[in-house]
Automatic annotation (TrEMBL):
<feature type="active site" description="Proton acceptor">
    <location>
        <position position="114"/>
    </location>
</feature>
<keyword id="KW-0520">NAD</keyword>
<feature type="binding site">
    <location>
        <position position="122"/>
    </location>
    <ligand>
        <name>Zn(2+)</name>
    </ligand>
</feature>
<feature type="domain" description="Deacetylase sirtuin-type">
    <location>
        <begin position="1"/>
        <end position="229"/>
    </location>
</feature>
<dbReference type="InterPro" id="IPR026591">
    <property type="entry name" value="Sirtuin_cat_small_dom_sf"/>
</dbReference>
<feature type="binding site">
    <location>
        <position position="125"/>
    </location>
    <ligand>
        <name>Zn(2+)</name>
    </ligand>
</feature>
<feature type="binding site">
    <location>
        <position position="140"/>
    </location>
    <ligand>
        <name>Zn(2+)</name>
    </ligand>
</feature>
<dbReference type="InterPro" id="IPR003000">
    <property type="entry name" value="Sirtuin"/>
</dbReference>
<dbReference type="InterPro" id="IPR050134">
    <property type="entry name" value="NAD-dep_sirtuin_deacylases"/>
</dbReference>
<keyword id="KW-0808">Transferase</keyword>
<dbReference type="InterPro" id="IPR026590">
    <property type="entry name" value="Ssirtuin_cat_dom"/>
</dbReference>
<protein>
    <recommendedName>
        <fullName>protein acetyllysine N-acetyltransferase</fullName>
        <ecNumber>2.3.1.286</ecNumber>
    </recommendedName>
</protein>
<keyword id="KW-0862">Zinc</keyword>
<keyword id="KW-0479">Metal-binding</keyword>
<dbReference type="InterPro" id="IPR029035">
    <property type="entry name" value="DHS-like_NAD/FAD-binding_dom"/>
</dbReference>
<dbReference type="Pfam" id="PF02146">
    <property type="entry name" value="SIR2"/>
</dbReference>
<feature type="binding site">
    <location>
        <position position="143"/>
    </location>
    <ligand>
        <name>Zn(2+)</name>
    </ligand>
</feature>
Length: 229
């Protein structure tokens, strides 16, 4: 803990790599844990796939509307402390999360690696649509096209801009902190392969993670860790 505090104090450019565990304390379930979104579901990957969106758009919409949106969720200690650090340091957050809570907490440089539920658009005319409108209907009243959230579904590629921005941030960081993720989902978990080899790396997670290079593991609840930073 003291090492992490010292590293943050000394660092010039910090990258936080965040996963589902960061948003669980805000009431948003993760995906694969015992009480996660996928628990008890027969084919959750299909429900969040490009195929489902294309073949059964109403089924896709119903699943996303009922299971993915938590508009009343508020940033927790992890989000707010990262935002505070970003006011004093050059901080980039690269997140797997699609809930917009890092932005809601006030961090300016956020790369939504898998997109955001709060950016929606019409697939027919490409017009941007608010999430509030999408939650009322998945049909765009102007052109009758199907609206979708701008998130990366199964069978879809990560946006090139997200990859390029992430790689640039990773290469220039002198401190990388992995938080609330098992760090096993590719290509997100491969980003640190492109780090500056002199960068310090810490991981904060309830379960230990394993990396093929030297790093400091803080096996603890991230909310407690960031409350003390």
């Amino acid at each position: 803990m003291n090492d992490l505090k010292g590293a943050i104090k000394q660092a010039n450019k910090i990258v936080f790599l965040t996963g589902a565990g960061v948003s669980v304390p805000s009431g948003i379930p993760d995906y694969r844990s015992k009480n996660g979104l996928y628990a008890g579901m027969e084919s959750p990957e299909y429900m969040l796939s490009h195929t489902c969106l294309t073949r059964e758009p109403d089924k896709f919409y119903q699943f996303v509307k009922e299971n993915m949106y938590y508009p009343d969720a508020e940033p927790n200690t992890i989000h707010t402390k990262m935002a505070e650090i970003s006011q004093q340091k050059d901080v980039t957050i690269i997140t797997q999360n699609i809930d917009g809570l890092h932005e809601k907490a006030g961090t300016k440089k956020v790369i939504n690696f898998h997109g955001s539920l709060y950016h929606c658009y019409c697939q027919k005319c490409q017009m941007s649509i608010s999430a509030e409108t999408y939650l009322q209907s998945n049909i765009h009243e102007d052109c009758l096209g199907i609206i979708r959230p701008d998130v990366v579904l199964y069978e879809e590629a990560i946006q090139e801009s997200a990859i390029n921005q992430s790689l640039s941030a990773i290469r220039h960081a002198d401190l990388i902190v992995i938080v609330g993720t098992s760090f096993r989902v590719s290509p997100f978990c491969n980003l640190t392969d492109y780090r500056n080899k002199t960068a310090q790396i810490f991981a904060v997670n309830k379960e230990p993670i394993f990396l093929p290079y030297s790093f400091e593991m803080i096996e603890s609840d991230a909310t407690k860790v960031f409350a003390e930073i």
